[in-house]
Amino acid sequence: MTQPLALPIAYLNGKFVPVEQAQISPFDRGFIFGDGVYEVIPYYGGKGLRAREHLERLERSLDMLDIPNPYPLDQWEVYLSELVAKNGGADQAVYIQITRGVAKRDFAPPKGLVPTVFMMSNTLARPSQALYEKGLNFVSLDDFRWGRCQVKSTALLGAVLLKQEAVQMGADDCVLFRDGYLTESSASNVVVVKNGVILCPPKDNLILPGITYDLMIELAAQHGLPLEMRKISRREVQTADELWATSSTKEVIAITTLDGKPFGNAAHAGKPGPLFWKMLGLFQAYKQQLRALAAAAE
Ligand code: PLP
Q: Which H or E run contains 245?
């Protein structure tokens, strides 16, 4: 049997519909040009983790493409909660996909298009304890994506090709470098630990400003973990003590193999390092607070 496309209920242009019945026009500019943006928002026990921040980033992505935001942020939150509830309320990753709309094929978009809005939800399976202990296997690749990586665009061919190349090399994913400096991964931010300091690439046009990245930076500040945001050279990455990836679906996870070799400080090469375990603990505590808040609100 083929896998279901997503959890059973989706949202399309104002209606909740069975996911197999969601249909859009082949003339949609999302299909023709990849002219659209998206978001992925984690929900735990029916409560969004930083949903507002995800919606604000969605609005920034739309603004950068000059696509009007179809709904005010409060309305988005209502639709999101409704979709999660209709799909059973358990832990879910909700995808919002918005395109510029349907039009005759022409690069220049006509005025007054109505954006297409689609939402679907997937079961959110956080990495298993065994995977946290093992860590991920990444390869270094050259970042050939476009120059506006801060836009969460549905045009993801760069990410698709890079991840495909990493998987063909037997890895889980890639660490990307542009002009000799660390950017991110195909679908996560990447940070380095060196001499007890968490080093984070700057939030410029070369990376997606991750919501999980921001949460990690906040948790580090709250708990007195030293952190610097600056450009990080390939050499610094190669000689770092620890390497982590962060994203809404992975949270924070260690990269323990890089380019086929066990990664990190000799004391724990090939295994997640001490600061990783500390940060993972802070994430879990933060999420537990969120679950407790959700339970208390019921
Ligand atoms: N960088 C890229 C290219 C991504 O696609 C993602 C998430 O999909 C991230 C970083 C992490 O962002 P977030 O923490 O908001 O999920």
A: strand 242-247
CA-based nearest residue to 236, from 278, 200, 266, 188: 200
pTM: 0.96
What is the C-alpha to C-alpha distance for residues 161 and 292, in angstroms, rounded to an integer? 41
DSSP secondary structure letters along 103-119: -SS-SSPPTTPPPEEEE
- Our answer to whether residue 163 is catalytic in this structure is no
Ligand 1, residue 212: give the atom nearest the CA.
14
Q: Is the CB of 40 under 6 A from ligand 1?
A: yes
Catalytic residue, chosen from 86, 111, 134, 152, is 152
Tell me which amino acid residue 199 is.
L
**Could you give the CA distance from residue 201 to residue 207 in angstroms, rounded to a whole number?**
8
Q: What is the pLDDT of residues 153-183, one digit of tens each?
A: 999 999 999 999 999 999 999 999 999 999 9
- Whether the CB-CB separation of 280 and 132 falls below 8 Å is answered with yes
Residue showing tokens 């104002």: 14
